[in-house]
Amino acid sequence: MSFFVPTLSLYFFGRYGKTFLSYCLGILLVILLVDFNESGRRLSLAEDYTVTLGLLISALRIPTVLQSVIPFIVLIASIDTLLKLNRKYELVVARAAGISAWQFLAPLIIANLLIGTISITGLNTIAAKSMQLAETIVVERNLGSPRPTSVAPWMRQRTEEGDTVLGARATSEGGTRLSGATFILFDKDQRIKERLEAERAKLTDGAWELENVKRVRVLEPVENLATVTVPTGLKAEFVGETLTSPDTVPFFELSGKIATAKSFGLPSTSYEMQFHRLVAQPALLAAMTLIAAMVSLKFVRFGQSLTAILGGILAGFVLYVVSELIQAFANAGTIPPVVAAWLPVLVASALGTTVLLHKEDG
Predict the structure, then answer these.
(1) 223: three-class secondary structure by DSSP
(2) Within 13 A of 337's CA, how many CA atoms are on the CB side?
(3) Cα 267 from chain centroid?
(4) Is residue 172, in this structure, part of any structural domain at all?
(5) Residues with Cβ within 8 Å of residue 37, at least 6 apart in sequence
(6) What's the sign of the alpha-carbon dihedral 207, 259, 320, 301?
(7) Is residue 79 part of a domain?
(8) Are 162 and 154 in contact (CB under 8 A)?
(9) In tens digits, what is the pLDDT along the chain, a chain of 362 residues?
(10) Domain tally, the chain
């Protein structure tokens, strides 16, 4: 018998596709509501904040969040599809016709490989561009979080006048535009000379241009200035490598970012981790299918069990936690990014394949 059964495979493929899309739509709505509530709590104190603007920002963030939760959607959709097929005895009939688990799982695995490929080639680009647009809106409208901590990492620049340490609550355009920016200027003896707090800042050729600035100096009254220029030797490419989040870089631009970071002598681990994680995503989704199958095959022989269903979902969450933990080690430079990206996939695939072989072939 052929490994693929055309009519049955197309039927299972269509059933799974409809289930996956329905879960996607439902989870998208939940993501939008949760993100809108959270962003509204953080940004509503800004003068320019409106409900419409908050919804727009949350909508622009949805593709990025969706890309992160796709493995869970795949797991739940795979379990749900197989449960429904079991409930209607369709898998029982398929087995009675001599079709093995590998044959009726093949359409789901192929569907998830396609979903993973579309995710890294299409959804990732949309997510990166929409996140960049969301950051631009936050910076231009000065909607940075009112919390005193800086979202962007602190940077130190050196000039003939002395060093300057700078940070911001939000960045856009590769870190060349800042919102809620703070500049701490030092003299040549490394003593704090003044502190500048600006609503917005923009990197130009040889200088930072600050707008709506509050200047604080020792033993002097606070000054409010419309504009202030701070000299700098930083280049836009260097700032972009330091402040740009990997989530805002499209997949096809990551290799260039990695090369640029290495040319500046900057750590490229975060970009490498993002690249390998995206490359491994189709295989991760296929592994989620095997985890779902581990649960479904038991139902065929021994009846459905809520404990087994929860066990399958728990296995998926454990895989996610382990992946995040290994990724943290990779970002810290403990293990290579390629190992961190592929190790959870290989372990999950080996475990799922082993269990299926045991159940199918003894």
Answers:
(1) strand
(2) 16
(3) 19
(4) yes
(5) none
(6) positive
(7) no
(8) no
(9) 455 667 888 888 999 999 999 999 999 899 888 888 887 777 777 677 788 888 888 888 889 888 888 988 998 898 888 888 887 777 777 777 777 778 888 899 999 999 999 999 899 889 888 888 887 887 777 665 433 333 456 788 887 778 888 888 777 777 788 888 889 888 887 888 889 998 888 888 888 899 889 998 877 888 888 888 888 887 776 776 666 778 778 888 888 888 877 776 677 788 888 898 899 999 999 988 888 887 776 554 455 556 666 777 787 778 878 888 888 888 777 888 888 889 888 888 888 888 777 766 55
(10) 1
Residues making up the chain, counted from first to last? 362
The helix-helix angle for 281-302 and 101-118 (nearest 10°) equals 150
Cβ(249)–Cβ(257) under 8 Å? yes
- Asked if residue 186 belongs to a domain, the reply is yes
Range of 170's domain?
A: 155-248
Q: Which residue is it, tokens 């429904």?
A: 84
Rounded CA-CA distance 315/294 in Å is 10
Residue 300 lies in a domain: no
Question: Of 166, 162, 172, 106, whose CA–CA distance to 137 is shortest?
Answer: 172
Cα dist from 51 to 7, 45, 127, 301, 348, whole Å: 49, 12, 22, 53, 43
CB 155 within 8 A of CB 243: yes
Segment (H or E) for 198 = strand 192-204
Question: 129: Cβ–Cβ under 8 A, 6 or more apart, which residues?
Answer: 250
Angle, helices 269-279/337-361, rounded to nearest 10 degrees: 20
What is the radius of gyration, based on Cα positions, of the chain? 26
Residue labelled with tokens 């949309």: 126
**Amino acid residing at 205:** D
- 251 in Cβ contact with 275 (< 8 Å): yes
